[in-house]
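Course assignment 3, question 2. Fill in each field.
Student: A.L.
Task: Predict the tertiary structure for the chain below.
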Amino acid sequence: MKVLVTGATGFIGAGVCRGLAERNCELRVLVLNGEDVSCVRSYAKEIHYGDITVPATLKGIADGVDTVFHLAARVTDWGPKKAFYATIFDGTRNLVKECEGSVERFVFVSSIAACGIGRHLKGFTERDEPRKSGVPYNDAKLDTERFIREEDAKGRTRYTIVRPSNVTGPGSVWVKDIIERYRGLFVPLIDEGRYSASLVYVDNLVDGIIRAGTMKAGEGKIYQFRDDWNVTWKQYVTDLGAVIGKKPMGSIPFSLAWYGGGALEAILTPLGVRAPITRLAAGAMGRDNDVDTSLARNELGWKTEISYDEAMTRIARWVRENMR
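Answer field:
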């Protein structure tokens, strides 16, 4: 099978490339000009330089391709709305236009944020109706999901949507950002860190993405992926801090983090400054986001393979080697 992967050098994308190569797929990857491709060079047979926001650079990218795994996006918790929509919505639309009718399968990697993060999502299923939250990243993902579902209804290409929960692992933003914050001022909890961290380890997620994109059952479906770890934010942030001899200090009520974050974003984002607390971070860490994953388990045979203890051992090793 010949596969195209966008966002191939990203944290999740590199793992998807490795997983597909291990399954003997022939890989073509899309990367930006000047991007370091060392993490995928050994897996990719073809490297295509282009930008999903510039349609002219995508010409011919789908020639001979069977399946597309689309992960390229703006992945951060701050920035102007137009920046998120340019890469997430417009970029996806450009890629779909180039690929539609010439590929059999198109896998869009979305996020549980598209469900409407900022409210409790415990038990939320793929059949439940998502809603916007006013956070640009979240809303761009949801609008793109709706666009993908409209394209799937046309029947020229079959589409699959994947919604990861909070992805952790060596190099994850949920590792790097927290460690960097520990080394700056301090790391507070939100609502005492009482809610589930709703994590998925990157290797477990990669297995789910590939199953969703290669199994017949995944055609036209949405799948959510979250590990079955019983881990609160307090435990996770405490365990991460212990790697460098730190621990969380204090707690911020969710309402203050959410509305205060929104106010700070409104003031600081136009100035090009990242707010010290954002609504995306507040919604992830201050609500229960244990979405339902039974569909992926029942239809794809997916399950958690890497335990929390093993995951934290690998993360701790990476932090000591890469974040001295």
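Instructor remarks: The first strand starts at residue 2 and ends at 6. DSSP finds ten helices and eleven strands in the chain.
Grade: pending
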